[in-house]
Write a structure and sequence with these properties.
The complex is a heterodimer of chains A (434) and B (173). With 434 residues, chain A is of the alpha/beta class. Chain A folds into two domains: 5-263, Aconitase, domain 3 (2-Layer Sandwich), CATH 3.30.499; 270-422, Aconitase, domain 3 (2-Layer Sandwich). In chain A, 31% of the residues lie in helices and 17% in strands. Chain A has helices spanning 5-13, 41-50, 76-92, 103-109, 144-148, 174-185, 200-204, 207-215, 231-237, 304-314, 332-340, 343-350, 399-408, 415-428; strands at 24-27, 31-35, 63-67, 96-98, 118-121, 135-138, 152-155, 159-165, 194-198, 224-227, 258-263, 270-272, 280-282, 293-296, 324-327, 353-354, 374-377, 393-396. In chain A, strand 3, helix 3 (76-92) and strand 4 (96-98) form a beta-alpha-beta unit. In chain A, helix 6 (174-185) packs parallel to helix 8, helix 10 (304-314) crosses helix 12 (343-350) and helix 10 crosses helix 14. The N and C termini of chain A lie far apart (48 Å). Chain B has a single domain (6-146), classed as Aconitase, domain 4 (Alpha-Beta Barrel), CATH 3.20.19. Chain B contains eight helices and seven strands; from the N terminus they run βαααβαβαβαβββαα. Chain B has helices spanning 22-25, 35-41, 50-53, 74-82, 94-102, 113-116, 148-156, 159-167, and strands at 6-14, 59-62, 86-89, 107-109, 122-126, 131-134, 139-142. Classes of the chains: A alpha/beta (434), B alpha/beta (173). The A-B interface holds A 24, 38-39, 47, 50-53, 124, 138-142, 144-145, 148-149, 153-155, 187-188, 191-192, 218-219, 221-223, 275-278, 380-381, 383-386, 389-390 and B 17-18, 20, 22-23, 26-28, 33, 45, 64-65, 68-71, 73, 91-95, 97-99, 102-103, 147-149, 159-160, 163-164, 167, 169-170, 172.
């Protein structure tokens, strides 16, 4: 029977030859992932023990915990929570990765993004493991189920196939592509469904760009987003994957809820205006809007290609006086590589404030805005109050736009800076194509 | 076992699509854990004094993709504390839907409800008949069925008691 990637992965995890969208199944997650956060992990630990008498989680080798929020701790109770997490992990034999970066990224670095695997978290941005062909979704409170049982109940989601065609123009990034999809398809267009993403744009896209796309799936209403593995992702997974699985590909005659083709050749950089991630607009219609702060980071963006393009924009220049530019690489591995490439130097010399990886900038725990301030941000979300005062505003955009806006003190088009950087690079090495 | 029908008035109609429920208590308040305090803050930005207008058993009505964004729990904790018994919406954002069903809080997907219901209208969710009845017009709108696990979760009063029942965990004394 022809199946989608999701149907194949869930069939294996349900111990069945095949499943169909709409089937109600009990599936065994290959990985159970969480970061510590008050009201979530502390409650799960307590409920598993007190409400279910579970002293040891079933198959602890499936579990991994991250400490990435409240890093570094700013109050004793935050450190207490982290201590509880470390102690729980030690007692359960579950690894706790601390200060290595944002968990959704570190999951991929540490081999939990195994092609063909099923991973569950409470946080929906785990969907970015879909970049590697992993079916990963945010079950919210439902993640308690694998804490107390091998399996979890779920309804097999239908799949929307999205084919991205054309070629991306310079200065247009995965971030733009995702928000363009929201604009074209609608913010609830894939509700309770999975998006299987393919096409020449995906084939040509970096792994990092794919992570960016898949990680934002929830803003299409989608349960998750998946990309069939290719040589790039299989190479990444090789020697890294925590479990050995055959990669999963969709059958050519799999049944889709619908197929959507979007040509992105004409796409220009976008901006997502407050107060909702549903509000994709053309960047050029908002150029000149005064902004006070910029955030380049998060699980959605903040990877090497984001840092590289920001450095291209900022190299040899100074950000606007009084502007606050926060650059937060998504993981320690990314930060170290950025340092090796000289990107950190370039960014610091331009006036950026660089922090070690942390989730805390994305939700305004630090670098908090006050009334009337406005940010350009590669963070996940632009709800009023997300990054501080409810009377502050967040404009979501790609990393190059954040960098250009930092230079001008207002929302700015990065493409002239990138053009300049490209011609400078080709002048420096005339033997190479620009 | 069957689900008790919901019967109440529409305490509020959120007509906007993609409504971010964090706005109900204000994003600045989402780290507050005291439910009584949250309940006092609920709808403060929309209608000060909202709490006093709610009757136990009232419901909220929402538009399409209700709960879009990052659906944190405090907003509906506050609403439950005020006596809100459930939400009837055109459609729900999946993360919000999963999270609140896990809390044992009924979310009813009912296309057409937003155009029909005004604030204060009597509404009844009849699970067995699979409809929402709108008092003033007498109209019955079909609702989207729940999965067995979702239904079991609501019947048990939340994911924890549902899983205890399903896994045969001895009840705590």
């Amino acid at each position: 029977m022809a199946q989608t990637m999701t149907e194949k992965i869930l069939a294996r995890c349900a111990g069945k030859a095949s499943v169909r969208a709409g089937d109600e199944i009990l599936a065994r997650p290959d990985f159970v992932i969480a970061y510590d956060f008050p009201g979530y992990t502390d409650v799960f630990f307590r409920e598993a023990r007190d409400d279910f008498g579970v002293d040891k989680v079933p198959s602890p080798e499936r579990f991994v915990l991250f400490i990435d929020h409240m890093v570094p701790a700013a109050a004793p109770k935050e450190e207490e929570l982290h201590k509880m997490t470390r102690n729980w992990g030690r007692a359960q034999g579950v690894p706790v990765h601390e200060r290595e970066g944002i968990g959704h990224q570190v999951s991929a670095e540490r081999g939990y993004a195994t092609p063909g695997a099923f991973a569950v978290h409470f946080d929906g941005h785990v969907s970015q493991l879909g970049a590697f062909g992993t079916f990963a979704f945010g079950a919210r409170k439902g993640v308690i189920e694998p804490f107390v049982s091998e399996t979890m109940a779920l309804t097999v989601p239908a799949t929307v196939k999205v084919v991205l065609t054309g070629t991306l123009q310079p200065g247009v990034m995965a971030r733009d592509v995702f928000h363009h999809m929201v604009r074209v398809m609608g913010p609830s267009s894939c509700a309770f469904q999975v998006v299987e993403l393919s096409g020449p744009v995906i084939d040509a896209m970096s792994i990092e760009g794919r992570q960016t796309l898949c990680g934002q799936a929830m803003f299409l209403g989608a349960t998750t987003m998946l990309i069939a593995p290719d040589a790039k992702t299989l190479d990444h997974a090789r020697g890294r994957s925590k479990i050995q699985l055959d990669p999963v590909y969709p059958d050519a005659d799999a049944v889709y809820a619908r197929v959507v083709t979007i040509d992105v050749s004409q796409l220009a950089p976008i901006v997502v205006i407050p107060p909702s991630p549903a509000n994709t607009r053309d960047l050029m219609d908002h150029v000149g809007t005064v902004v006070h702060t910029g955030y380049l980071g998060s699980c959605a963006s903040g990877r090497l290609e984001d840092l590289r393009i920001a450095a291209d924009v900022l190299r040899g220049r100074q950000i606007a006086p009084g502007f606050q530019l926060h650059v937060v690489p998504t993981s320690q591995a990314i930060m170290a590589q950025a340092a090796r490439e000289g990107l950190i130097t370039t960014l610091v010399e331009a006036g950026a404030f660089i922090s070690s990886p942390s989730c805390d900038y994305c939700f305004g725990k630090i670098a908090t805005m006050s009334d009337g301030q406005r940010a350009v941000s590669t963070g996940t979300l632009n709800t009023p109050g997300r990054m501080g005062s409810v009377d502050s505003e967040i404009y979501i955009c790609n990393a190059a736009v954040v960098a250009a806006s930092a230079l001008e003190g207002c929302i700015a088009d990065p493409r002239p800076y990138l053009l300049h950087a490209a011609s400078a690079a080709s002048a420096a090495s005339p033997g190479e194509a620009a | 076992m069957s689900l008790p029908n919901l019967q109440g008035r529409a305490a509020w109609v959120f007509r906007e699509d993609d409504y971010d429920i964090d706005l109900i208590i204000g994003v600045r308040n989402i780290k507050i854990t005291d439910v009584a305090e949250l309940a006092k803050l609920a709808m403060g930005d929309q209608e000060p004094g909202f709490a006093a207008t709610v009757h136990k058993g009232d419901v909220l009505v929402g538009g399409r993709n209700f709960g879009y964004g990052h659906p944190h729990y405090p907003a509906m904790r506050a609403m439950r504390h005020l006596g809100i018994a459930g939400v009837i919406a055109e459609s729900f954002s999946p993360g919000f839907f999963r999270g609140e069903i896990s809390m044992g809080f009924p979310l009813v997907t009912c296309p057409g409800i937003c155009a029909l219901a005004q604030r204060g209208d009597a509404l009844e969710v009849d699970w067995a008949a699979g409809v929402v009845r709108h008092g003033p017009s007498g109209t019955a709108l079909p609702i989207q069925p729940l999965s067995a696990a979702e239904r079991g979760t609501l019947e048990a009063g939340g994911l924890i008691p549902y899983l205890q029942r399903r896994l045969g965990t001895p009840a705590k004394t």
